[in-house]
Amino acid sequence: MSCWMPGCPALSMCRGLAALPIACLERAKDLKTRLGILLHKPELGHRTGTSSKLQLGSRRRDSSRDVLEWRESFDQLLKSKSGVNAFHTFLKTEFSEENLDFWLACEDFKKTRSKTKLASKANRIFEEFVQSEAPREVNIDHETREITRKNLSGATSACFNEAQAKTRTLMEKDSYPRFLKSASYQDMSKQAASRGSSKRSHT
C-alpha cells in the first residue's frame, strides 16, 4: 500500500515498522555475540567432561567396594541394591527366588501406614507366598504358616515377622554361601579387586 497523503496513519505505521527491525537487529547481534563467546569457550566442555568422568569413576569405586562388602555378611548384601539384584539373579538359577521376593515384599509391607491397605496387602502376600500350595510358596514349617494365618485376622505391620525371619535364615544359611562360591560372584569380586588395586597403584 502506498501512503502519499501527509498525516496518513499508515505512513506513521510504516515509519514505526521501519525503525523496529534496526533495534531488534542490534539486540540480536548483541545476543549472538554473547552466545558465540559462551559456545566457543573450550574450558566449559572440558569441565563438563571431567566432571562426568569423575562421577563415573566414583560410581565404579562405590560399586567395587559394594561387591567386596557383600561377602562380609548377609546383612551387607541385603543393604545393597545391586547386591540384592545380583543375589536375585543367582536365586533364579536355583529356582528359589521366591524366598527373596517374599522377604522384599515383607519389607515393603512394613512401610504401609494405611490400615485398609495393610489388610489387603497382607492377604495378597499370604496367598502368593505363604498359604499351602501358594503359586510361589516359600519353604517354612507348618507351625509358622498357621501362626501367620492367624495373624491375618488383625493384620499389623508385624504379622509376617516370624515367616520372614525363617525365610531370611534359610537364605543366609543355605543360598548365601552358595552365592559367594558361584562363578558369577567370583568374577564380580575379581573385577572389583582388580579395579581397587589399579586405583591404589595410580595414587
- End-to-end Cα distance, whole Å, is 78 Å
Tally of separate helices: 9
Broad shape: elongated
Q: Which blocks of ≥5 consecutive residues have pLDDT under 50?
A: 1-5, 10-14, 37-59
Largest sheet: none
Within the CATH hierarchy, at the fold level, what is the topology of the domain at 59-194? Regulator of G-protein Signalling 4, domain 2
Looking at the overall shape, the CATH architecture of the domain at 59-194 is: Orthogonal Bundle
- Rg is 33 Å
Secondary structure category: mainly alpha
Average pLDDT rating: 79
Q: What is the beta-strand fraction?
A: under 5%
Question: How much helix is in the residues?
Answer: over 70%
Total beta-strand segments? 0
Can you offer a commentary on this structure?
This protein has a domain of 136 residues: Regulator of G-protein Signalling 4, domain 2, CATH 1.10.167. It contains 9 helices and no strands. Helix 4 runs antiparallel to helix 5. It is mostly helical and 203 residues long.
Any key phrases for this structure?
203 residues; mainly alpha; 9 helices
Topology:
Elements: H1 9-39, H2 42-69, H3 74-79, H4 81-93, H5 97-110, H6 115-130, H7 142-151, H8 161-181, H9 183-202
Can I get a quick summary?
One of its GO terms (biological process) is negative regulation of signal transduction. With 203 residues, the protein is mainly alpha-helical.
